[in-house]
Amino acid sequence: MTQTTPVAIRELARAYFDRVRAGWERGDVSSVDEVYSDDLVYHIPPFPDLDKGGLRDFVTGFHQAFPDFSVEQDQLIVDGNTTVHRWHCTGTYSGENPLLPTPPTGRSTQATGVLIAQWHERRIVELWHFGDWMGWLTGAGVLPPLGAADAG
Known about the structure:
Shape: globular
Number of domains: 1
Strand content: 25-35%
Radius of gyration: 16 Å
CATH topology: Nuclear Transport Factor 2, Chain: A
Distance between the termini: 63 Å
CATH architecture: Roll
Largest sheet: 5 strands, mixed
Order of helices and strands: HHEHEEEEH
């Protein structure tokens, strides 16, 4: 088995973020097979865990709902075979998505989050995707703001 050094992991992680960004921003999910292991577990609370096929479907649907989505990496931390990516993103809910309970609102939104990736043999085997889904969906008009009283 080949030992992957922290420097190599850092370079893989930088390239990973750029490749994966294409999926989220342009709907190009070809990087899924390049970046993730065949036994990937992708945790994305509050949604169910995803495998590679589920991730492709999720990213495709997300891109359809937010076709102008943009994400930037703010920080990369490497600790052994683990990387942490801190990011921020923006988008407008202007397309249909079967995961969302309301039709497109045309509202722009923003969020921040963190990806924690566990690497093995130059691929990600497990990833935790923590994002401000409540803020994202509230800004997009999918959820009511916290504390908003029901007028009914």
